[in-house]
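Deliverable D5.2: sample structural annotation.
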Amino acid sequence: MEATDRASEIFQPQKAGEMIEQDKLKLLIYGKTGSGKTTACAKLPKPIILLTEINGLASIRRANPDADVMMIKSWTEFKYTLVALENQLAQGNCPYESIVLDSLTNLQEMIIEEVKVETGSDHLEYKGWGMAINRTVTAVKSVNILALHSAVICLADEYMDGDKRCIAPSVAGKKLPGQLGNYFSLVFYQYVRVKDEKSVFLVATSAPETHTTKGHPNLNQREFPDFHRLFQLTQRPVAPGAITGFNGTRYADEKLTQKEETADAKN
């Protein structure tokens, strides 16, 4: 009888139209070095930036000198930093509205090195890889579960799938690069396009199957990397007949010709 009562307490379905949607940005942004990922994420509202590589500091200073930065040198430091933020949020004295992990690629490298020490091996075997991948996923979940806007930055990896050049987030694990987007509401690929001898930073919010992306009907296929504005657009009602996709969509700066559109797909 106790189990039945407990089941009745737990089983409380709601009407979809009455449920509250996620009101925080949960973004995975990936791209090549120098594509502007750190600069864009530093402009999120009141950010705390968990920085794994000191070279990113210059970009943060230029974009937002008031941003708080926590240098992360190990998996252990990362875990304790998240605990401290959780405590601040629970006590209602957290001064931040956003958290940025820059980058998951480097954090996973730290995780792998610590797992090697724990297992006493210079090369990870099956069990060691399982530990490393599980901790990588735990890192993502720990950031996204916080009641803050969150952005996780990755480098980009290129690989060949037959005769197609594909681009995905740079994390180790046979399946993890393709599965990583499951933990985020938005996945963008950021890149640089040279136009009139000037560099223009752009994000692909939806793209061909050669790129890992997760967009939204309210977003153009290609947007400028103002992530807070893009998130606000996703919170508006979807226009009737709105679609996402590679072809037939609008762009942030101008309608591309077919030649330009194809070139963008290769970036």
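Annotation notes: The first strand starts at residue 26 and ends at 31. The chain has one domain: 20-265.
The annotation will be released with the project's public dataset once the embargo ends.
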